[in-house]
Amino acid sequence: MKILITGAKGFIGKNLTLELRNRGYEDLFLCDIDTTYEQLNEYTKICDFVFHLAGVNRPEEQKEFMEGNFGFTSTLLDSLKKNKNHCPILMTSSIQAILDNPYGKSKKAGEDLLLAYEKDTGSKVLIYRLSNVFGKWCRPNYNSVVATFCNNIANDLPIKVNDREQSITLVYIDDVINTFISAIEGKEKSANDGLYYVITAYPVKLGAIADLIYSFHQSRKAASSEDQNISQLLYIPDMGDEFTKKLYSTYLSYLPKDKFSYPLKMNKDERGSFTEFLKSRERGQVSINISKPGITKGNHWHHTKNEKFLVVKGKGVVRFRKPFEDEIIEYEVSDEKLEIIDIPSGYTHNISNMGDSDMVTIMWANEAFNPDKPDTYYLEV
Fold first, then answer.
1. What's the CA dihedral at 35, 40, 41, 42 to 10 degrees?
2. DSSP 3-state assignment of 216?
3. CA of 158: how far to CAs of 148, 214, 256, in Å?
4. Rounded-to-integer distance, Cα 306 and Cα 343, Å
5. Distance CA 144, CA 161 (A)
6. Which one-letter DSSP state was computed for residue 98?
7. pTM for the whole structure
8. Which one, out of 97, 149, 252, 369, has a CA that is 20 to 30 A from the CA of 320?
9. DSSP codes joined into one string, 324-360
């Protein structure tokens, strides 16, 4: 299939182009502001499907709304007509097309033009009215509040929230792209008004968006801070919530190039070190334990807390004993055979380095450490 994409260098265009290539679509004609009419005419001679994404969102003069959102649409359709190409066309419009403002009027004019073209030529037309699209590569301080918030907060710049209670409806770029590619396969489904929408959408208040992004930012800053905020220290957001997961991915894409990394607080002594890596309110915490040769750590038990140990460097032994029994259970561990050792509740346990070099163990606990309720009781194995 030969696919023409207008607005190919824009936010949606970049994401669509790369995902089409990921899925094996190779004949892509990329059209943007620097494409000549002659090139466009060549593309419209042979294309089998058109993604018409080009448009004007924030021009210097209001007349450019109509020139970009209506005028170029007319140019595109004239070129298709000239070449007698009746291939399907998917056009991105906006939920603002129902509003009485210059942008909304220009988008509605583009819609009407395309519908008239469909009636005149019999070509299949799909008009997708998009709400606020967010995701990676969206231009900040331009037309997306999410892009602006993510960019500014990631770079320690101020943001402005005029009304925390204002609700907006967001759609995620991957959901948009998946919806569009489904249209190529004939799986689109129109709404009652005959138009098309991205089904997965998130109505969210501006204040909630800002608070969530600030929490992402703070969790990274608190990792090595001396003045640690325990409520945010190393906590990753709730990845079980789809919107939070998508917003977190978006936020990370705006990190400054010199801020991808952040330091952790290593608790060191003569035995080695213990470093908390990440925490989750739903899925516990992961830590990295380094033990010097001959060192034994642990010798404690838990009522409810349970853990998983994975030795990734060195060799050692994990020992268990019930508090009221004498039997000691032993498991040898090493980096030569990676296996997880479950640490059940009700067993006092320890781990000893039996090698000649540092032993590194990844430790997962089913709950993040709470100093007010540690559920950890000293008892020699």
1. 90
2. helix
3. 10, 11, 15
4. 6
5. 13
6. G
7. 0.90
8. 369
9. T----EEEEEETTB---EEE-TT-EEEEEE-SSS-EE
For the stretch 262-315, pLDDT in tens is 888 899 999 999 999 999 999 999 999 999 999 999 999 999 999 999 999 999
Q: Kindly state the tokens that stand for 234.
A: 């190393």
254 is catalytic: no
Residue 158, token pair as written in the block: 């101020």
Q: Please classify residue 378 by burial: count the beta carbons closer than 10 Å to its beta carbon, then call 0-12 exposed, 13-18 middle and 19+ buried.
A: exposed
Q: Choose among 345, 316, 344, 315: nearest CA to 330.
A: 316
> Is the Cβ–Cβ distance between 323 and 379 less than 8 Å?
yes
CA dihedral of 213, 218, 219, 224, whole degrees rounded to 10: 160
Residue 320 is classified by DSSP as: E
What are the tokens at 205?
């208040």
HSE of 21, CA atoms in CB hemisphere, 13 A: 9
Q: Show the domains of the chain with their CATH numbers.
A: 3-204 (3.40.50.720), 266-378 (2.60.120.10)
Question: Tens digits of per-residue pLDDT, 159-192?
Answer: 999 999 999 999 999 999 999 999 998 888 888 8
- CA 68 to each of CA 12, 126, 133, 329: distance values in angstroms, whole numbers, following the listed order: 17, 19, 20, 74
Phi/psi class of residue 137: alpha, beta or left (left: φ > 0; alpha: ψ in -120 to 50)? left
Q: How far apart are CA 189 and CA 131, in angstroms?
A: 17
